[in-house]
């Protein structure tokens, strides 16, 4: 979940101008498609990005004055992927959310992909349920790495750190190491994940969960992803990363670096994407309750209207479009108070970025997620959130939606 997802509208506008032959499913991201269904809003007439160069799948696009290179899947049809990876075995290490989504997409694309997880563990059983066959394309981690030419390390961040001493010796010259998060190599002083110096090291980071990666692929669409090169020994690392990005289910790929990917990802998750927005929901809800409003009214004015009405408008056509769709009274107040919120919150966001950049957030994550009782502690926190009045009220509100009341 990183910064490039906010550029999807700009890219869609540029692609519409670049190619009238591209299938419609390639022109819309998951957020936009979902928003269109919910809001029933037609696309805004204005374009947010102006392309000035096109060569094969690579496009240089002007995003509000900043030029960025963007790749699209149109340049990597299935037949080309099969030819490109005909001599490779893709070893998917780990079968969590991303491993599940990316692995199944690779398999459906016809590539030679195998899964490596702890034998007879929970992930092993889940992989079997998804049709992976022991001894054919399902192996323990060591054997999968020995068989693979491209090692796709999709273990959790904490697990990557813990298993690295056993994995590193098997990453011999000629193999490629693939990540979907820059966490481990960027914070190597803490994770101890120091990659071998004689192999390509690349990254494809989908901007969403592995379940979304899978869903969009099955619907004929593609998720936005970041793509980066940490180490290029062969001279073909970037091309390989882009091809793999398409193979795992990306529609568009935005160039970045390992460092920028992990900084923006950790920062965004703790900020507007999850932590910050949850904190604002709680603060607004609690003030409404303290001032005598009912749970249903407080929830509707805090969460329901935001997620079901206003946020989809922002995702579809931008903040200005959302303002224009509201009353003049709402518009005036929102514009005035947004400045105060920005001025108040910006110092907090600066502290947050510093905490990400200096490794404080990484250390806390590793320390916590490496505890033997972390699952129990995490579940306790989830139970506490689920039992907050705001989310218990929300459950009741959702039950009254037409799709849930049949």
Automatic annotation (TrEMBL):
Residue ranges of domain KARI C-terminal knotted in the record: 257-404
Pfam families: KARI_C (PF01450), KARI_N (PF07991)
Details of cofactor binding: Binds 2 magnesium ions per subunit.
Reactions the enzyme catalyzes: (2R,3R)-2,3-dihydroxy-3-methylpentanoate + NADP(+) = (S)-2-ethyl-2-hydroxy-3-oxobutanoate + NADPH + H(+); (2R)-2,3-dihydroxy-3-methylbutanoate + NADP(+) = (2S)-2-acetolactate + NADPH + H(+)
SUPFAM superfamilies reported for this sequence: 6-phosphogluconate dehydrogenase C-terminal domain-like (SSF48179), NAD(P)-binding Rossmann-fold domains (SSF51735)
GO terms under cellular component: mitochondrial matrix
Binding site for Mg(2+) 1: 265, 269
Leader peptide range in chain numbering: none
Cofactors required: Mg(2+)
GO MF: isomerase activity; ketol-acid reductoisomerase activity; metal ion binding
Binding of substrate, residues: 327
Binding site for Mg(2+) 2: 265, 301, 305
Pathways per UniProt: Amino-acid biosynthesis; L-isoleucine biosynthesis; L-isoleucine from 2-oxobutanoate: step 2/4; Amino-acid biosynthesis; L-valine biosynthesis; L-valine from pyruvate: step 2/4
Localization per record: Mitochondrion
Any one GO BP annotation for this protein: isoleucine biosynthetic process
Name of the protein described by the UniProt record: Ketol-acid reductoisomerase, mitochondrial
């Amino acid at each position: 979940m990183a910064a490039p997802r906010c550029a999807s509208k700009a890219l869609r506008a540029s692609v519409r101008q670049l190619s009238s032959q591209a299938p419609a499913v390639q022109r819309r991201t998951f957020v936009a498609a979902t928003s269109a269904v919910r809001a029933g809003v037609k696309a805004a007439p204005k374009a947010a990005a102006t392309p000035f160069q096109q060569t094969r799948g690579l496009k240089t696009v002007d995003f509000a004055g900043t030029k960025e290179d963007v790749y699209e899947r149109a340049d990597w049809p299935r037949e080309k992927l099969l030819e490109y990876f005909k001599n490779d075995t893709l070893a998917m290490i780990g079968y969590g959310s991303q491993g599940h989504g990316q692995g199944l997409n690779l398999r459906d694309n016809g590539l030679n992909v195998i899964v490596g997880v702890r034998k007879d563990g929970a992930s092993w059983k889940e992989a079997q349920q998804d049709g992976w066959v022991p001894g054919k394309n399902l192996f323990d981690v060591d054997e999968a790495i020995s068989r693979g030419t491209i090692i796709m390390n999709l273990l959790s961040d904490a697990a990557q750190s813990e298993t690295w001493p056993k994995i590193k010796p098997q990453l011999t010259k000629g193999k490629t190491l693939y990540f979907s998060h820059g966490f481990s190599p960027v914070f190597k002083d803490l994770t101890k994940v120091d990659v071998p110096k004689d192999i390509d090291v690349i990254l494809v980071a989908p901007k969403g969960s592995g379940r979304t990666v899978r869903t969009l692929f099955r619907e004929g669409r593609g998720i936005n992803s970041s793509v980066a090169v940490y180490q290029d020994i062969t001279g073909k690392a970037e091309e390989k990363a882009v091809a793999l990005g398409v193979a795992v289910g990306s529609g568009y790929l935005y160039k970045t670096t390992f460092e920028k990917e992990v900084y923006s990802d950790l920062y965004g998750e703790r900020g507007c994407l999850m932590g910050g927005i949850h904190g604002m929901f709680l603060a607004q809800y609690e003030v409404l309750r303290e001032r005598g409003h009912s749970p249903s009214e407080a929830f509707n004015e805090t969460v329901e209207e935001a997620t079901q009405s206003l946020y989809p408008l922002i995702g579809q056509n931008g903040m200005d479009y959302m303002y224009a769709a509201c009353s003049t009274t709402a518009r005036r107040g929102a514009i005035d108070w947004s400045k105060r919120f920005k001025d108040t919150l910006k110092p907090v966001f600066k502290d947050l970025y510093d905490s990400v950049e200096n490794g404080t957030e990484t250390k806390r994550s590793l320390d916590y997620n490496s505890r033997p009782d972390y699952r129990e502690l995490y579940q306790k926190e989830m139970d506490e959130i689920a039992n907050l009045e705001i989310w218990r009220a929300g459950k009741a509100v959702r039950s009254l939606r037409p799709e849930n009341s049949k």
